[in-house]
Amino acid sequence: MSRALYEHLAEKYLQSLIQRNPDQARQVLSSSPELLPDLYEIANLGEVMDWPAQIVACGQMQMLLDQMNWQKGSLVNLSPSDLPTLEQFSEALTT
């Protein structure tokens, strides 16, 4: 899978998570301004419909994506129950 495809799929998935409960999404994104300043800023300054693209484009996400080996090109198919929650996405950015 290419990085561009992964970013596109991540954005679509984040969109579905945020649309389910925007208030909860705002709470998750703004829960840790010290550890996740990018997400905090997105939740407080961005429009809900722009959050998925802003999350994927934020510095913390891009640093995480920079660490992945995109040359491997393998694709992993996960069942919906194996996909991360918004909380798990935000936790991954703190590592």
Question: Can you walk me through this structure?
Answer:
Helix 1 packs antiparallel against helix 4 and helix 2 packs antiparallel against helix 3. The chain is built from six helices and no strands. The radius of gyration is 13 Å and the shape is globular. With 95 residues, the chain is mainly alpha-helical. It is 61% helix and 0% strand. It has one domain.
Helix and strand layout, with pairings?
Elements: H1 3-20, H2 22-29, H3 37-45, H4 51-57, H5 59-66, H6 86-93
Helix pairs in contact: 1-2, 1-4, 2-3
Considering the chains and any ligands shown, give keywords for the structure.
95 residues; mainly alpha; single chain
Shape: globular
Q: Termini separation (Å)?
A: 23 Å
Q: Major sheet, described briefly?
A: none
* Order of secondary-structure elements: HHHHHH
How much is the average pLDDT?
A: 85
Question: Which percent bin holds the helix content?
Answer: 55-70%
Question: Structural class of the helices, strands and pairings?
Answer: mainly alpha
Portion in beta strands: under 5%
Instruction: Outline the low-pLDDT stretches.
Output: none
Alpha-carbon Rg, integer = 13 Å
Number of separate helices: 6
Question: What number of structural domains do the residues give?
Answer: 1
How many individual β-strands?
0
